[in-house]
Design brief:
Length: about 450
């Protein structure tokens, strides 16, 4: 996805907005377009919508550290460099001063605020473009959801510790006045935006753009996290039944073939705007590597082809999902893929009918047997829900490893405290301390921090 320069000024301003700076820079770059005038017509609107993909490509968002953070905290990645932020995530003991959470908070709310600008300008200028509007609604939902599952108590619908919700474009002064909504309110806004997006987006074979199927797939994920298993089944089933998508015969094809049949939404990188993940996990010495004993070795022992995306040099395990050469940095980030839909439906079915795991096991085995056709799980392997969750977490790790899911799965399935030996309050990242300070009491910190 090519970068659109008209959006650079907005991106810069939003960083200041959500870092909580009291004053915007007094000087302007010669080529800077004032943010209020960034969208003036249908052409600049489309450019702004493309700019949303650019925000997602940030090196501390889907172009890098957001993905690594979830596997570091989730226990399948190791901090093997010298960066303090990664070492803290690796221990699952994340202080409010952690550099990653500070930067990612900016990322997710950049995405939200940029989406809000598009929506407000469309309304103000009476511009009609269903794809741009649907993309903005999807991205606002995604930004809020990524904030909620990191910084909110997303497993507790009765919790007051949701996230700040923003549905209108905000400047520096108004941004710091937004307090936290409840978890239930946070989910409702995310779901409303995705439903609105689905109402205007179209089904499309394009894997690199946001489509109606991508919105359905994200909604399936949201409903799973919310614990609404009926709707998680409904929406994952919609995507599975969509003949545009099918599992690749070989697991690794999704990394070798851009826009393969399995990809639902793939964030495309070009050589000119490279994916930071390549340099962090695939180039010596890696800042982050795959855990050997509990993650790589069991796959390797099974001769699981999903282990072929990792390279053990006897010291560390490199991750080759995004390339292996520092000069080739255009590996795409897989935001949503079809195999996840089977895993979502398997989990939802298991939670809905814990005394009958037959259908859940069938979905799990669709994923399992693509990689290991001679080693399906049988009903004997899952005598109860707890046993099913154990194998589900293992399959989630193998299938979605280093794609940004493991930590959330552990928290969602109630295994984070026991498997990682951490207190319950640490299953939620703290709100960055600089945000707490600037908000002057408007933002309440998560309990325990």
């Amino acid at each position: 996805m090519k970068k659109i320069n008209i959006y650079a000024c907005l991106y810069m301003l939003l960083a200041f907005v959500f870092l909580g700076c009291d004053d915007i820079l007094d000087t302007k770059l010669d080529a800077e377009v004032p943010v209020e005038n960034a969208i003036t017509d249908a052409i600049s609107l489309k450019s702004a919508a493309v700019g949303l993909y650019d925000i997602m490509q940030s090196g501390t968002y889907y172009g890098g550290e957001f993905i690594l953070a979830q596997d570091l905290t989730g226990g399948i990645a190791d901090a093997t460099g010298f960066q303090e932020r990664f070492a803290q995530l690796d221990k699952a003991i994340v202080p409010p001063s952690n550099a990653y959470i500070q930067n990612n908070w900016v990322d997710v709310y950049n995405l939200v605020n940029a989406s809000n600008l598009i929506l407000s300008k469309m309304n103000e200028l009476q511009l009609v473009d269903d794809n741009s509007k649907g993309t903005a609604l999807f991205c606002r939902a995604l930004g809020h959801f990524d904030a909620l599952r990191q910084f909110g108590q997303f497993t507790d619908l009765n919790s007051k510790f949701g996230i700040p919700l923003s549905t209108g474009y905000v400047d520096a002064k108004s941004a710091v006045g937004i307090s936290r909504s409840t978890v239930a309110e946070s989910y409702q806004q995310i779901i409303t935006d995705l439903n609105d997006a689905m109402g205007i987006l179209k089904y499309d074979t394009n894997r690199f753009g946001i489509t109606k199927a991508a919105a359905e797939a994200l909604l399936a994920r949201v409903y799973l996290y919310k614990g609404d298993y009926d709707n998680a089944i409904v929406y994952s089933s919609k995507v599975i039944a969509n003949t545009t998508y099918k599992l690749n015969t070989k697991y690794n094809d999704i990394y070798d073939v851009e826009g393969s049949s399995e990809a639902i939404f793939e964030l495309q990188f070009l050589g000119t705007d490279g994916n930071s993940l390549t340099g962090l996990i695939s180039v010596s010495p890696p800042e982050v590597s795959a855990d050997y004993s509990n993650f790589f070795a069991p796959m390797d022992d099974d001769n699981d082809p999903r282990s072929y995306r990792y390279y053990d040099d006897g010291k560390v395990v490199y991750v080759d999902k995004y390339g292996t050469n520092k000069n080739v940095i255009d590996g795409n980030s897989i935001i949503i893929k079809l195999s996840e839909m089977y895993l979502i439906r398997a989990e939802a079915l298991a939670k809905k009918t814990p005394n009958d795991l037959t259908l859940a096991l069938a979905d799990l085995n669709v994923v399992r047997q693509r990689a290991l056709p001679s080693k399906p799980y049988t009903i004997i392997d899952v005598p109860n829900l707890d046993a099913f969750i154990t194998i589900l977490l293992d399959e989630n790790g193998r299938e979605l490893g280093f794609e940004g899911h493991k930590w959330f799965s552990l928290v969602r399935l109630g295994r984070a405290t026991s498997e990682l030996n951490i207190p319950a309050f640490r299953t939620v990242y703290p709100i960055p301390q600089n945000e707490i300070t600037v908000a002057k009491g408007v933002l309440e910190q998560n309990p325990g921090y």
